[in-house]
Amino acid sequence: MPLEDYLMPAEQIKFQSSDSVRYGEKSYRVVVTDRRIILYARRGSLFKNDDVISQKLDELEALKFSEQGLLVRKGLLRIQTAKTEMQLLGPLPQIKVLYQQMMQFL
């Protein structure tokens, strides 16, 4: 299924990552809508399966951005809600833009 199948009616995409980011041990494409942050990946070589994680933006409590690495700089974004904390690691410019886009929801 394409990503659009997981959007709610009238939900609008505000940001899409061009590269994958790491969440745990897996890579995802990040999509920020006007209501949620969605981590989306299509997995499998022969039989394709969707891997989707979503978090409501109205539950967002805190964001923390930091940089890692000496030679190859990576961005780390910590997204804190009342129930969970997500840590997204990826290319520095992309994580910075993601952080800036999400700041409007705090």
| CATH-defined superfamily | Pleckstrin-homology domain (PH domain)/Phosphotyrosine-binding domain (PTB)
Binned, the helix content reads 10-25%
Q: What is the CATH architecture assignment?
A: Roll
Oligomer: single chain
Q: What distance lies between the first and last C-alpha atoms, to the nearest angstrom? A: 31 Å
Shape: globular
CATH class: Mainly Beta
How would you summarize this macromolecular structure in one to three sentences?
11% of the residues lie in helices and 52% in strands. The chain is mainly β. The protein has one domain (3-103): Pleckstrin-homology domain (PH domain)/Phosphotyrosine-binding domain (PTB) (PH-domain like, Roll), CATH 2.30.29.
Which SSEs are present, and which pair or pack?
Blueprint lengths: L12 E4 L4 E3 L2 E8 L2 E8 L5 E8 L3 E9 L5 E8 L3 E7 H12 L3
Antiparallel strand pairs: 1-3, 2-3, 2-8, 3-4, 4-5, 6-7, 7-8
